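I have been asked to look over a protein record a colleague put together. Alongside the sequence sits a line of tokens, each denoting a local backbone shape. Please read both lines and tell me whether the tokens look consistent with the sequence. I do not need a full report, just your reasoning and any doubts. I have pasted the whole thing underneath without changing anything.
>
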Amino acid sequence: MLQDSKEIFISYAWAGDSEKFADRLDLAFQEKGITIIRDKRDLEYKGLIKEFMERIGRGKCVIAVISDKYLKSPNCMFELVQVSKNGGFYNRIFPIVLADAQIYDPVQRLKYIKHWEDKIKDLDEAIKQVGAANLQGIREEIDQYTEIRNTIATLINILKNMNTLTPDIHSQSDFEVLFQAIEHQLAQFEATENKQNEGVSIPSVPTNGLVAGKFYRITAKHSRKVFAVSQGSHSNRTSIIQYDWQNGDEQKFRLLRLEGEKEYYFQAKHSGKVIGVSQSSLSNGTSLVQFEWQNLDDQKFSLIALPGNYYKIVSKHSAKVLAVSEGSRDNGASVIQYEWLDTDEQKFKFEEVLL
């Protein structure tokens, strides 16, 4: 039986069918002895809304009541994006899709994308009507809309591929299937935490010889070419590509890790900048670039050991892996992030470089 552990959140649109459904779900869980963390109950007077939504995004289990209104709401979509940015989206999200959420029809899905493009356009046009100074908060809004626009297609695609059961099935079973799924997921989290507390090695930490602080060349298994900063540039947003090994400093990366964290970041020797996912995107095919260290999750990567001393390199913010675009063997081919397909262009060897 679940304990009232304050680990289960609910994300939903206020008013209408969405809130009524959330009320029924909330009551059903309370009858099982579980109080879900919910804004109308747990966000106190003068509580900070954005910080509460970010807390939802870090939750171990997040029930998302997906409706048409939800997919068009800045706050709801901010919460959904936060869940994704904190990693483990598939494991931590527990969606229930209401009938008015048109996520299964590609034409309707495109309308949600257009909705956010229109929001960006309208706000951008409004900004042009006033002076550039003293726009505190407004630019953050347009950045938020842009992030939603860049991720909504990927997130909806994940949701539509899940068998979320209908709202009627959930209601008729008194949400028992949902309850059991969350119970199982929390048990998995607890087992992982227990292993960490007992000092058992976690799979994301390599165990066969990589040393933080040393420089490495990162070699793609399929092409035998190495990571490089394009044209040896020192500029932010310069693409990471594959290229024949030439012993250039733009091909040497220092493996670094913050104290207490499992993930690593890769610092280019020539520029001192680090590898990151462009614009913190969650989308397949997004390019890797160099940028100044900002301690962001898109600059942090887990290294999962594979046979033959290869690794898959997993982005913390998206849970996608690094890959050479389209499996190309050409010099100059982009390094991107993509869903794990277990192909050779997603497997990399770290070979120490002696300076």
Notes: The domain at 8-192 is CATH 3.40.50.10140 (Rossmann fold). The CA atoms of residues 103 and 157 lie 8 Å apart. Residues 1-5, 199-207 have pLDDT under 50 and may be disordered. The longest helix spans residues 138-160.
